[in-house]
Specification:
Blueprint (H helix, E strand, L loop, with lengths): L1 H7 L6 E6 L5 E7 L18 E2 L36 E3 L4 E6 L22 E7 L9 H4 L15 E7 L18 H8 L9 E6 L9 E9 L2 E2 L23 E3 L2 E10 L38 H5 L44
Parallel strand pairs: 4-12
Antiparallel strand pairs: 1-2, 1-5, 3-12, 5-8, 6-7, 6-9, 9-12, 10-11
């Protein structure tokens, strides 16, 4: 319990957003999530993070049809949602952005936090985009696994923009006082030549090129982190309660999802406020994806190459892939060597790291 507390209080769910140049480098000052809280002490839990289903549900860990997809203070978009200190990021249509989050030990300290039977990719992040900024009545079940990449799914009010592994392959948490047995943190620190004690994870996503200028664009960052029926499953299945026990396939035993909202202030692609790097459609109205990733020396200041070239690191039916369950190439999953492994011994060997 003590060790869990130590990890839980180490970082809040603070998120920030960064604009990415076509070469992957982060540019400009950061933006923030909707209604950002910079401290976790003295703030009610449901003001800084949002878990579904809630922990204290009397009828158990099941999703209800009217479960709201985000926490109360993130549902409306109003004057108090952003402040001078925690502003909304200004971006152009077609820009890439990084949504950064602290992994809270879910990536680099799985042994310490005693996490049971979780997928190897540490869960899948779904990024849903919409111009309907008011999420007051937005239910989880009406958006997640309903909105599709072509925007025709569910109520058609938004679309699935990308899927990412929660472990972005780079991030790690500072080694806690109780020590390190996983070996993930020191390996990543030296591999990425990063002298920081921790490195935030990121979900990179391209703002659609056809979003309207002069209006916020809303992205729901949703982390699907179910407890599975067995260990070593690569990615969560893209289904509710995928109880396939009669088919012999691994299934979701306990659903667990987290979500957060970030908004982007969409400006003209040639707007002076963007600085030297204008939006991709400034010079050429038909520009689509102009990524040309440069070798980066400091990952703390850059996007993730694989994410900038591939919106679908996890292939799901909602993105038009002809699959029944979510799938991913093992080579696209950080620590993919753990797929199929039922008993993990720490520290992890270099071959897996
Ligand atoms: C899945 O199905 C099996 C067999 O019918 C059952 O024992 C188990 O409780 C089910 N699990 C869930 C989460 O519904
Ligand atoms: C990427 O582009 C930005 C903006 O033009 C520039 O400041 C930065 O030095 C470039 N980074 C690399 C690694 O080339
Ligand atoms: C989808 O996959 C199934 C099974 O592999 C195959 O039978 C079917 O023809 C595929 N459909 C399309 C549209 O490719």
């Amino acid at each position: 319990l003590l060790s869990l507390l130590e990890l839980a209080t180490a970082h809040s769910w603070s998120r920030q957003t960064r604009r990415l140049a076509p070469n992957g480098t982060m540019i400009g000052a950061p933006g923030y999530e909707r209604h950002h809280n910079d401290q976790d002490l003295g703030v009610a839990e449901d003001h800084i993070s949002w878990v579904m289903p809630p922990n204290d549900r009397p009828d158990g860990k099941i999703i209800h049809l009217d479960d709201k997809i985000v926490r109360p203070n993130q549902r409306p978009l109003g004057d108090s949602s952003y402040t001078d200190q925690y502003p909304m990021l200004k971006v152009a249509p077609g820009d890439f952005v990084a949504i950064q989050y602290t992994e809270n030990g879910h990536v680099s300290l799985p042994d310490k936090t005693g996490q049971p039977v979780k997928p190897v990719n540490r869960g899948t992040v779904y990024l849903y985009g919409t111009t309907e900024n008011d999420l007051t009545n937005a239910n989880l079940v009406d958006i997640h696994l309903k909105w599709t990449s072509d925007g025709t799914g569910g109520d058609g009010k938004g679309k699935l923009l990308a899927t990412r592994n929660y472990d972005d392959g780079q991030c790690y948490e500072a080694i806690p006082k109780i020590g390190d047995t996983e070996g993930i943190t020191p390996y990543r620190q030296s591999t990425f030549k990063n002298d920081q004690s921790n490195l935030m994870c990121q979900s990179d996503v391209q703002i659609p090129t056809d979003v309207p200028v002069g209006k916020p664009y809303t992205i729901i960052w949703l982390w699907d982190w179910p407890t599975m029926s067995e260990e070593g499953v690569a990615v969560p299945p893209a289904t509710w309660y995928a109880n396939n026990s009669d088919t012999g396939k691994p299934y979701v035993k306990i659903p667990e999802l987290y979500a957060s909202v970030v908004d982007f202030d969409i400006v003209d692609p040639c707007d002076p406020s963007l600085g030297d790097v204008k939006g991709p459609t400034c010079k050429n109205k038909n520009a689509k994806n102009v990524v040309s990733f440069a070798t980066q020396t400091v990952p703390v200041n850059a996007g993730v190459k694989a994410q900038m070239y591939n919106p679908w690191l996890v292939k799901v039916p909602q993105a038009g892939f002809n699959v029944t369950d979510a799938t991913a190439a093992p080579s696209d999953i950080p620590l993919g060597g753990l797929i199929g492994m039922k008993q993990i011994t720490f520290p992890l060997p270099a071959s897996i790291l």
